[in-house]
Write a structure and sequence with these properties.
Distance between the termini of chain B: 44 Å
Structural class of chain B: mainly alpha
Oligomer: heterotrimer
Largest sheet of chain A: none
Helix content of chain A: over 70%
Largest sheet of chain B: none
Number of strands of chain B: 1
Number of domains of chain B: 1
Strand content of chain A: under 5%
Number of helices of chain B: 11
Strand content of chain B: under 5%
Distance between the termini of chain A: 55 Å
Structural class of chain A: mainly alpha
Number of strands of chain A: 0
Order of helices and strands of chain B: HHEHHHHHHHHH
Shape of chain A: globular
Chains: A mainly alpha, B mainly alpha, C mainly alpha
Number of helices of chain A: 8
């Protein structure tokens, strides 16, 4: 009993750190630290999976945790760092539509909106308040990722936003549904492919989509969209 | 009665004695990180003794504010330090309200800011202006962290909070780690450390706290420096004794007090090392980027409370 | 006994008004002093009456005049009314002492006489409003209070801005009376009586409408945002002793009305508490943010009144919310915190306005950018203003802290509320409360620093004189009250029988005082040898007042941080001497802050009403035939209606 409560508290702490890292992603201007924050975020996600594994002892959770660590904490950030080493842009200073402070306030408001929406479903889902909170945070994380994609200009930041969305969906599935192992592998492969593609494109795109279009049109070519 | 007197004297003397050591250790750690040897560990004490022998010079534009501010500062900060038990938990109750503790420090800051404006120099005005603005923006973070503390430990009285964590353990209240994070940021702001302010320089760009005490001289300056050190020690003590109160004496036994003093010294010096390393890792943030930084801290502490409430 | 004291006080004030108004030949200052002396006597009589009521917890009702069986002038004194009358009386006594010399400052002889007369009527009407037992008397004296204060606001009516302030005040006060009448009439419709007693048997929606009407009515008079716009204009334009009365006392009478409605007449719902909390927090935060950009000393103080009214309304909101969740200790803490803050604010706000009046009279300007260095020429005024500033910034051990800490304690108990979303709302409001409290401290560092410290920035400020004795005694008494109420707050609350979790400030103050003394002793040898020299200015020889930080510079970081609220527009116009636009020959610049409420809410509403009034007045100015036609049409309509209904 004590163990379960302790596990509950550990999950709560990890969730706070997770949402803190998402808030950092929204406001960070330095691209190098963005990757470290993403790696940290994925590590926290793996840690949550591990704690849930100690509570429920489903093997798929353990595999998922290990896979997350391998792919999202090690491989993808390594890839992105190599990409950044050849790019001349090291910072992303422009914010569109939203300033950093208003983005944070908007995310806080989003969280409550999602929570209000989910309490309607909570009866049919039959989960405890902690798991409901986890699901709500998963959805909020996905929405915050979308906020990042919407409000920043550089493609690299948009990639991190997309990856945050993926993390959010994973978190949601951790708390609400059991993911079979195969689907997990498929998702990770999918993600790796997208990363590779993005890396190639981003190498060519180099900074923001508008600059890419300008360069292409200067060369007399148009990109397919 | 005797217990109370013993507590008052011992706590105050210990805090006053250990504060310069903590300040010097932070400087030493920063020096090592920068590849230097740095000043000796007892330099803080040497500085204070030296200042007490120097003469006092007042600006011709200053008034009774400048003359009274150092005394008011040390008075209020020592009164605040009485509310944070470090040597042992006193028997007397009802003296440790955490809001009173925070606002005593605000009072000291108020008079320090007024003294900065008093001499009519540009530096003092600038320091006062920035200090009051930044302390206004960090105040919601402080109060939200205190609210989280009150929520988890079910009390607003500091000695009672320490008693609760002393008899419980961290595993009983793991969410206190989150509160510790917010309190750490509050400590950085209140003690004017990088990335909020650079306490080493006297350039206009980085002076906030240093600018307000620029006109103070001699023993008055010693009192201001000492009160700054006391503020840092008691804020660190608040965090330490909530997260790791191991060794804190529950009553006034002789051995228990010795153990308490030694363990607290070790813990506060470790904290000072952490602060020094943290300062060396970052650059000072631009003044107008600081509100975003504080907003993150507020988001963090607010999330702590909300998640405690909803789960 | 109580009745005799009460009526005696009233008679004394009427006599004072009469003496002052009737006038006579020769110098009026003696006559005015006699009138003010009578005011003080009357006020002391009231204080004694209230002290007896508070000590005995007696409930007294007496009739003065019966117009019809339904309508009459009746008074009812219980503890709540006695508390508020005590606030009014004690502050008035000090303001009256202050006014001995202050009224001699400006205006002509006859105008000074009228001002003292109007002041007596104003004070009398305020006390009678609080003591009223039915709505007829309440609104009658409310209107009397508004009209007499309007008279007083228009004291300097030659200045354009005073006229504007007066018109604004008149319109808003009629607006508030309109809503009060609406509330009273609705209550009468559902309970059949005009008495201020418990109204049972009201449906939820009716009670909600009545509460909203009263809230708008009292909120306008108290200065709750968004009905606050008249407050800075009126309180700044009035003479300082009147501003002290209006800001310190009149807005508290509005709070009395609100408390009476919530306590005795209606039974509050949860959403009323949330409404009060939200409006209170918005008033508190926006009030102090607007105060930060003000450079008119009295407008700055007026915005701080808005902020403190916000705090009191927050306390009332917390009381309603906690009461609905049956958390009795927290509810009591909030209600008594709000009432204590009412007392404290009355004390330190009138203190601040009075000392501000001394400063304005000495330097002939209200702009703090033209003051400075007054601490050397007016040290006593500076010391009293310092105590007031420390009190309003909620610094321990003064009384502002004592009441704010009660509200903080109530907030920190919010996790006991069973509904998590309400708890989240309370914690969000707590963050706003903390922000406001810290910003108030920043604003008063700016105000005190710019007015009193450093070097004088204008000729008048250099040659200012200390205020005369009576202008120091009045605020001085209030400053002493601030200290006593603050340091002994715990003892006082325990003494009147409230067992609330309030911190004991006395031991901490004693410790601070002891250390202060020890430090003074330790340094006294070096202090005696202290030398005076110039300020360090990077090697510049003669320091002038242009080198010190101005008030605009002081508040610039905060204004930049909160720039989305201020929306400063900077318009720069440059003229060039050549066609390549490279040599500037002159130009102008303007800085506008967005007057949100004025431009977006008040002015459009005023224009709309003006348009409608235009149409209606068009209907008036017609000839005789059209008028007869109107009468004919109305008679036909009445006949039709009677035919239908019966």
């Amino acid at each position: 009993m004590n163990n379960a409560l302790f596990g509950d508290d550990i999950i709560k702490i990890l969730l706070v750190f997770l949402i803190g890292s998402a808030a950092l992603v929204i406001t960070q201007r330095s691209l190098t630290s963005l990757f470290s924050i993403y790696a940290l975020q994925s590590a926290i996600l793996a840690a949550i999976a591990l704690v849930l594994f100690t509570r429920e002892a489903t093997l798929s959770l353990l595999f998922m945790a290990l896979l997350t660590i391998l792919s999202k904490v090690v491989i993808i950030p390594m890839f992105l760092r190599r990409l950044l080493a050849v790019m001349p842009i090291k910072r992303d200073l422009e914010f569109r539509y939203l300033t950093p402070i208003s983005s944070i306030m908007l995310s806080a408001a989003l969280f409550f909106v999602v929570y209000k929406a989910f309490t309607v479903f909570s009866a049919s889902l039959a989960v405890g308040p902690l798991f409901l909170l986890g699901a709500v945070i998963g959805v909020s994380l996905a929405l915050m990722g979308m906020l990042v994609i919407m409000s920043r200009r550089k493609v690299v930041t948009k990639i991190i936003g997309y990856l945050t969305m993926e993390n959010g969906v994973l978190l949601f599935s951790l708390f609400i549904a059991e993911m079979p192992f195969i689907i997990e592998v498929l998702i990770v492969v999918d993600l790796l492919m997208i990363i590779v593609l993005s890396a190639v494109l981003a190498f060519g795109i180099d900074s923001s989509v508008e600059a890419f279009h300008k360069r292409l049109s200067q060369l007399g070519l148009e990109s397919e969209d | 009665m005797l217990n109370t007197v013993l507590y008052l004297v011992l706590n105050t003397v210990f805090v006053v004695a250990v504060s310069p050591l903590v300040m010097s250790l932070v400087k030493k750690v920063k020096a090592y990180c920068q590849g230097r040897i740095g000043p000796p560990l007892l330099q803080g004490y040497y500085n204070l003794f030296k200042l007490f022998k120097k003469e006092i010079i007042y600006s011709q534009n200053s008034s009774f504010i400048m003359r009274l501010a150092p005394y008011l500062n040390i008075g209020f900060l020592v009164a605040a330090s009485v509310m944070v038990p470090i040597v042992f938990l006193p028997q007397i109750s009802g003296i440790g309200n955490i809001i009173l503790f925070l606002y005593l420090m605000v009072t000291a800051k108020f008079f320090m800011a007024l003294a900065g404006l008093d001499a009519g120099s540009t530096f003092g005005g600038m320091g006062s202006s920035r200090e009051m603005s930044l302390s206004a923006i960090i105040e919601p973070v402080t109060i939200t962290s205190v609210a989280a503390l009150a929520f988890v430990l079910k009390s607003t009285d500091i000695p009672q909070m320490f008693a609760t964590t002393l008899h419980g353990s961290l595993t009983q209240y793991p969410t206190l780690i989150l509160v510790a994070f917010s309190l750490f940021i509050v400590i950085i702001v209140e003690t004017a450390r990088v990335p909020v302010d650079n306490p080493e320089t006297h350039l206009e760009l980085t002076m906030i706290h240093e600018a307000m005490v620029l006109e103070q001289t001699g023993p008055k300056l010693a009192l201001m420096e000492l009160s700054h050190g006391i503020k840092q020690t008691i804020l660190m003590a608040l965090s330490i004794n909530i997260i790791l109160p191991l060794g804190l004496a529950a009553d006034a036994g002789f051995i228990a007090i010795i153990v308490s003093i030694v363990s607290f010294t070790v813990k506060v010096l470790a904290f000072a090392v952490v602060v020094g390393v943290f300062e060396s890792m970052m650059a000072k943030i631009r003044l107008f980027r600081l509100p975003s930084f504080f907003m993150l801290a507020l988001f963090f502490s607010f999330a702590t409370i909300v998640f405690e409430l909803l789960a | 006994m109580i009745q005799a004291l009460f009526l005696g006080g009233g008679v004394a004030l009427l006599l004072a008004a009469a003496i002052s108004a009737i006038g006579g030949q020769g110098s009026g200052s003696g006559r005015r002093r006699a009138a003010l002396g009578l005011v003080i006597v009357g006020v002391i009589a009231w204080c004694s009456a209230c002290a007896i009521v508070l000590a005995d917890n007696s409930n007294l009702t007496f009739q003065l005049y019966q117009l019809t069986p339904q309508l009459g002038i009746a008074f009812h004194l219980d503890r709540l009314a006695a508390f508020f009358i005590l606030i009014v009386s004690s502050v008035t006594a000090c303001v009256a002492i202050y006014s001995f010399r202050y009224v001699e400052h400006t205006g002509s002889e006859s105008r000074r006489d009228m001002s003292v007369a109007a002041m007596s009527v104003f004070i009398l009407s305020m006390v009678l409003v609080v003591a009223s037992a039915n709505f007829f008397a309440f609104i009658f004296f409310w209107e009397l209070m508004s009209l007499s204060s309007l008279f007083l606001v228009m004291f300097d009516r030659e200045k354009g801005e005073t006229a504007k302030a007066g018109i604004y005040y008149l319109v808003m006060t009629q607006f508030s009376t309109l809503f009060l009448l609406l509330g009273a009439l609705l209550l009468h419709r559902y309970t059949g009586t005009f008495d201020i007693t418990s109204a049972g048997g009201l449906t939820l929606s009716t009670a909600g409408i009545i509460f909203t009407a009263f809230f708008i009515g009292f909120g306008t008079k108290a200065g709750v945002i968004p009905f606050h716009k008249w407050l800075p204009f009126a309180h700044a334009a009035a003479p300082s002793n009147i501003s002290a009365l209006m800001s310190g006392v009149m807005i508290k009478v509005a709070i009395y009305g609100l408390v009476r409605i919530l306590l005795d007449v209606l039974s509050p719902e949860l959403w009323w508490g949330t409404l009060l909390l939200v409006f209170g927090t918005v008033s508190a935060v926006l009030g102090v943010i607007y105060a930060l950009k003000e450079h008119d000393l009295k407008k700055l103080l007026a915005f701080h009144s808005i902020e403190n009214i916000g705090i009191i309304v927050i306390g009332l909101g917390l009381w309603v919310i906690f009461g609905n969740y049956h958390l009795k200790t927290l509810a009591d803490l909030s209600l008594f915190g709000a009432l204590f803050h009412t007392l404290n604010h009355a004390i330190f706000k009138s203190l601040l306005f009075m000392t501000a009046g001394s400063v304005v009279a000495a330097t002939h300007t209200r702009n703090i950018e033209e003051m400075g260095g007054l601490v050397k020429t007016m040290p006593a005024t500076a010391a009293i203003f310092l105590i007031g500033s420390a009190a309003i910034s909620a610094l321990p051990p003064l009384n502002g802290f004592a009441s704010e800490v009660m509200l903080f304690q109530a907030y920190l108990g919010a996790f006991q509320v069973p509904s998590p979303l309400t708890a989240v709302l309370l914690f969000t409001a707590l963050a706003g409360f903390a922000l406001m409290s810290a910003l108030a401290a920043a604003c008063f560092v700016k105000a005190f620093g710019a007015v009193f410290l450093a070097l004088p920035r204008s000729h008048e400020a250099e040659h200012a004189h200390e205020a005369p004795m009576s202008m120091l005694i009045g605020p001085g008494i209030l400053a002493a009250a601030c200290c006593i109420l603050g340091v002994f707050s715990y003892q006082i609350l325990k003494g009147i029988g409230l067992d609330l979790p309030v911190p004991n400030v006395l031991p901490v103050s004693l410790v601070a005082l002891t250390v202060f003394g020890l430090a003074v002793l330790a340094v006294r040898r070096m202090e005696a040898k202290a030398r005076v020299s110039e300020t360090w200015g990077c090697g510049i020889h003669a320091q002038t007042s242009k080198m010190e930080y101005t008030a605009s510079g002081f508040s610039e970081p905060i204004i930049t941080i909160f720039s989305p609220i201020f929306r400063t527009r900077k318009i720069a116009h440059r003229e060039f001497a050549d066609k390549d636009k490279s040599i500037v020959s002159g130009g102008s610049g303007e800085v506008h802050t967005l007057q949100f409420f004025e431009e977006r809410i008040y002015m459009p509403t005023a224009q709309f009403v003006k348009r409608i009034a235009g149409y209606v007045s068009g209907l008036h100015n017609v000839d005789l035939d059209a008028n007869v036609m109107y009468i004919f049409v109305v008679i036909v309509v009445i006949l039709l209606a009677v035919g239908q209904l019966l």
